[in-house]
Structure formats: structure tokens, C-alpha cells
Amino acid sequence: MTATVAAPPAAARAGAIPRLRPGEWATVAYAGGLLVLGLPNVSGFYWTPKAALLLIALVPGLVALTRLVVVRERAAIAAAVFLGVSTLATVLSPSPLLSFVGLYIESSSLLFVAALVGSCALGRGLSAPAARVLGSVVIAAGVANAVMAWLQMSSSFGNGVFERFDGRAPGLLGNPVHATAFLVGAFALAVERLQSRDGLPPGARAGYLAAAALFASGVQLTGGRTGLVLLALIGLRALLRIGWRTTAILAAVAAIGVVVASATFPSDAGAASRLASSGGGSIGSRLDRWRTALPAIEARPLLGVGTGLYRRATSPHSTVASALAFGPDSLYQDAHNLVLQYAVTTGLLGLAALACWLALAAVGVRGELVWFVLFAGLSLLIQPEFVGLTPVLALALGAASTRPAPPPGRWSRPVVIVGIVVGLVAAVALVRADRLFDQAARWRTVAAAHRAQDALPMWPEPAAFTARLEHAHVAGATAAAARASARDAVQAARLAVRRDPSAPSSWLLLGEFEADAGDRAAAMSAYRTALRWNPQSGTAFDALAVLAAERGDHAAVRHWCGHVRELYGKVACPSRS
């Protein structure tokens, strides 16, 4: 096994396709797929196919980790300890199933932690030529994401894959913040390629400069304020590495990319406009949200609440300040900060194991992939993890190591083959089930909704969708049919509550449908439970004020309306009589 080193081999410098082992090609393809893969006929356009890829690569990654543990590599041992602590936190969590699989279209769970440590171990198995190919795949994926950002902003397509998010382009990662982080990392990687003064094929330098301009334009279109700041930091670093002439050209082409994108699609949602108009309010509002993590850590300091259950632990501590900043019924599903995320979900033991793993994995790393990991990974301090990016960062971190990886043992191949088959079956089942959910949303038939609900038994969202669809059939139906639909809507909402009792949105839905079905006591109970999981829910406050007004309890109306006006100011309360 050839160790990963900073300098590319001669074949790679000459532009020839290196001879890699099949496993290395598979690992590189896995990383590329996470960065670009999307499916238009599933509910989670970008999340579902990437999550399916994680399932397929899960066992091979854990086998690679086991090989490293057997030879007593310290970083691998720390990664295994982190996975072990996360597993214990999941087993002891109040909702082990949700902790194991994570929330729907969210990237935090025990499976996700296993994918992270496994991806890093897979990266450790890449040779120097394979690591170089991985860098080329990252740059190609960056080009694809930037081009997609331009297509999404052009409004030339109507499919959901091409839709914008708050006026910003999500690229092929499905969310502008993840697209920004990735494009910044790809920009840093392209800059590293520019420092090679010999061995570049003809036109390669111009190609990397063009890619850098495209990446900068993509950052503008994705609206990443911090992305522009990081591009400037990369330019300052380039000044020390590639000289002022090339750096000046780089700065010029990056500025042209930003200006052209801004001029083509003028919008307040662009990165430059958002950066110019932002003050300290954005960070201040995040601090308000992050403060809710402190009592959650105090409540379960050692092992946390369980991987993937950040919202469950923190939402009961929501404050008026955080509600005013983000909206009373808007909650963080993820900490938007790697440290707080794992402090809350795996406890201080898990956080310590994570820190040890990352610190030991960073020892001895070098080469171009280091800067991709560093600049793209900085987003994890202010943004959530993502199934399509964070595992690639872990894989690139492993590939940047200069330590030789142990050869595969005789036992590993059959285990890997079986693991791939099992993962493929699970991946197909996930894609099929999410396709049923997409069909239910498109067709809006109760039968399709029930099929999706049964195919995704671990998550409340399909059941909540079924409840809304059943409730929609109440209007215009005969009296008997309306009563049946109302009863079915309540049953589906109760199912959503059972699947995740900590979700305030499910309790709000149940309260609404119980009230419409005429059971005011059950509705009040549901709304009060919603307030247990989100003490600042404006929807629950208003609904309880409505119910109090209906029974003539004026003191209760004043009480609940006081909370409403604390959040919304001078508004009509209750909203209906």
C-alpha cells in the first residue's frame, strides 16, 4: 500500500489515468456520488439517494475501521471509542429507534456516526494516486454544483430539483449553506492545484482558474455570507504559497465570478448583498438558540440524549429571545455547531472521544485535501452536518494521512461483500419507500398516503401527511363521511405522535384535529403537550386562547393572549372566536 503524500505521482502529473485498485475506484465513486447524486422522484430529492449511498458503504467502512483498530492505530481506536459511546447513548436514549435512524431528511443519527468513522477509514485505504483522483472528483463535483446553481437561478426549469431556497440556489446538495461550504472547499482545492509549477498538463492552470471563478460565482448564488469571507482568507493564504502574480490573477477571476453572478441575478439573497446588510444580528440569534443547549447538557451530561435527538433535548428550553429570532414554532433539529451537537446528543464523553479522534486523525496529514477539509469543515461551527458533505470531509481527512494503511485481511472480503448486499437491499427499500411518499404528495390520495406511512414506519412525517389528507376530505363530504374522515385524521395524527412524542408539530396537528372533531378536552391536552416540547409555540398559545374563549374563560384568554402578544406584538387574539 502506497502512503498518501503531498506530491502527486508522475503519472497523475502527466494527466494519465492512474491504475487504482477496484476498492479505491469504489471509494472515490462513493465520495463523488455523495456530492452530486439526486433523484427527482423521491420526497427527499437530494437527501434520500445520498443516504442510500451511506447504507451501501456502511459495512465496508466499518470493516476498514476494524482493520485499523487491529493494528492499533490510535486515531482508529479513538474513532471506535466515539462510535461505542454514541451506541451506548442511543441504547439509553428515550427514543432508541429515532436515535438510531435519525429524523427524517436530517443528517444526525447513530448510522450517520458509523458512516463518518467508516468514511475516514475508507479514506485511509487510498493510495497517493487515488487521493489525487479524489481531489479531481471533488473539483468536478464542485463544477457540477456551481453549474446547477446557475440553472436553478435561471428559473428555466420547474421540477423540484431546480427550485430555489429562500431565493438562493441549493446546488446539488439541496441546501444553500451546504452548497456554499462545499464550493469554498473546492475553491481551496483548486488554489492548491495552482501552486504546482511543473507537471501540470497544458491548459490546466487556466482550467483551475476558470473553476475558481465558477466556484466563486456559485458562492454568490448560494448566498453564503461567510463563504465570501472564507474565499478572501484562501486568497490571503495563496499569497504566501503561489506568489503575488498568480494570486492577483486568482483574486481577479474570483471577483469577476462574483460580479457576473450578482449582475446576472441581482437579488438581496445573494452572498454579497447579504454580507453587506448583515450585522451582528445573525450571530446573536444563533447564540440565543445555542443557549438552549446548556440546560440540555446539564440534564444528561455524560452520554447525552442520544444521537439525532438534539431537538428533543433542547426544544423544552426554548426562550422568548430565540423565538423572536427564528419564529415561535421554528426549532433547531440540529445544533448548527459540531461541538454542541455532540455534547447534547452523546454527552461530554462522546464529545471528548470525537475531539480525540479528530485530533489524532489530523496528525501527519498533508497535501491538497487538507485545505479542502479545513475550509469546507469550518461550516460545521455554524451550520448543521449533512449526509452529502460531512462524510466526504471525513473521507478526505483519512486520505490526507501520510501513514500507510494495513493490507486487507482474508476475512474482510466476504464480510464486505455481504455488507454491500445488505446495504444495497436497505438502500433500495429506503428509495422505494420515499418514492411512495413522493407519489402520495403528488397524487394526494389517501390510499397512497397510507402506503407511504406504512413504508416509512420510523418517522412521523408520513403519518402527519396522511392526517392532513384525511382532514381535507372532511369539507364537502356527507355528514357520515365527514365524521369518518375526521376520525381517521385524528388516528393518523396520533400515530405521528407515537412515532415521535417529542415533536411539537405533531401535537399541534393532533390538537387541531381533536378540536375539529369536537373533543375540546383532548385538544387542550394536545396543545399543552406541544408547549411542553416548545414552551414558546405561538400556535399553541393562540389555539388555547381560542378554546378558552369558546368556554367563556376570560382569565385563561388573557393569560394565553399575553404569551401571544409577547411573541407577535399587537395582534388580534384569539385569532378566531
Describe what this molecule looks like in 3D:
The chain contains 28 helices and no strands. 53% of the residues are buried. The longest helix has 32 residues. The chain has two domains: 395 residues, no CATH class; 131 residues, Serine Threonine Protein Phosphatase 5, Tetratricopeptide repeat, CATH 1.25.40.10. The protein has 577 residues and is mostly helical. Helices cover 69% and strands 0% of the residues. Helix 10 packs antiparallel against helix 11 and helix 26 runs antiparallel to helix 27.
Secondary structure: elements and pairs:
Blueprint: H1 10-13, H2 22-36, H3 47-70, H4 74-91, H5 96-101, H6 110-124, H7 128-154, H8 176-194, H9 204-222, H10 225-241, H11 243-264, H12 271-277, H13 281-290, H14 293-299, H15 310-314, H16 320-326, H17 338-345, H18 347-362, H19 368-377, H20 390-399, H21 412-443, H22 446-455, H23 461-472, H24 479-499, H25 504-516, H26 520-533, H27 538-550, H28 554-568
Into which percentage range does the β-strand content fall? under 5%
Can you tell me the number of structural domains? 2
Based on helices, strands and strand pairing, what is the structural class?
A: mainly alpha
Sum up the overall morphology in one term. globular
Number of strands: 0
- What is the helix tally? 28
SSE succession = HHHHHHHHHHHHHHHHHHHHHHHHHHHH
Cα separation of the termini:
74 Å
